[in-house]
Design a protein that fits this description.
- By secondary structure, this protein is mainly α.
- It contains 7 helices and no strands.
- Helix 3 (45-79) packs parallel to helix 6.
- It is rod-shaped, with a radius of gyration of 29 Å.
- The mean pLDDT is 81.
Amino acid sequence: AFVVRAEGDPRALSGAIEAAVHHVDPDLPLFNVRTMSEVINQGIGQQRMTMVLLLGFAGLALLMAAIGVFGVTAYSVSQRTHEIGVRMALGANSSRLLALVLRQEMLACLLGIVAGVIGAVALSSLLRSLLFGVAPRDAATLAGAAAVLFLVTIVACYLPARRATLVDPMSALRSD
């Protein structure tokens, strides 16, 4: 096996390399001539495919988590329609009511994120063989994932809470 370092296009030197090898031994065949980039790409191809699959499943999990948080929050807020109607009938400001509902719903979501980070740290040793260039307990990665989930949770909580503050107080009071 030979490794040749070259400046510029390494494929352009293949003829000169073949001539040099045949000068030493004319019966020596050349085969599997590749650039270092091709060797590296072939070597990490399986890890790259695994990471692409993990990324796809992580995106799907994030989407499912957002849909789940949205559904549970919408149901929780809909169960409080009567209470929200009473508060609005008594003169509650819709922005303060929105903040109240968001605060209460976000508390449960934040507890879920904290539990998820603790679970990720506890189970990180199982993923050690799949990680490349990242420590299993990398604080930046965990913080980034938690931040993305937090932002998704804010949106998923905001939409049902905003819809609840737009309810007519009289219809909310009659609906119970």
